[in-house]
Specification:
The protein is mostly helical. It has four helices and no strands. 13% of the residues are buried.
Amino acid sequence: MATPLSAASAYASVARATTDSSALSLAKKTVEADPETSFSSLLKNALTSVVDMGHKSDAASRAAVNGKGNLVDVVTAVSETQVAIDAVVAVRDKVIQAYDDIMKMPI
């Protein structure tokens, strides 16, 4: 059974992981490094990092199933991936909404 201390530790690990290596921070670093970066390359980099997070999550889950992984690492990797996917879905929804708004404009 999880204790409050272990839960707090797991949440702190997730917070550190998401602030250090999330897709949004990667995108921010890319823009800061090259202000002339196109939106398509920014989107491609963000999606690539989300896919990499998914692979990391899968690898951590496989390691835990084989008895070689730590459950906290699995929860951290899965939570990090979920946050990144939620961010991608939110961006997708905003793009679709913007497209719909443009299509509704009178000519």
